[in-house]
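Progress against Task 2.4 (sequence-to-structure conversion) is shown through the following example record, which the project officer requested during the mid-term review.
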Amino acid sequence: MIRTKHKNIISKRILTHIDDFIIDILHHEQFRWRDSDRKSKAIDIIDILFSELKQHKDIEQFKIICDKRNNSQHDFDQGIYHLEIIYVQAQCLNKTRLHYIFGTGVQF
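Structure tokens generated for the chain above:
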């Protein structure tokens, strides 16, 4: 299961592209995130997407957070993961925040 929260969306086109990509990765890999190598590879794939968006000048900066800064040991033990992505769209001052909560322990 995946739950999302988004703040300060400027371009729905960019958001849709990112969101579809992230949700596809999470659906495909979410039950394997306990394996740190698989988690690192998934984060690397997401990083590549954002690097390409930056290269195409759709965004100017980005940060991907999915570690102890936004996941407690209790979350990991329960099979819940928090993935936060912060980016600045090109020619914009606002930061867009995407927050994905996913894993076997996520309840709606």
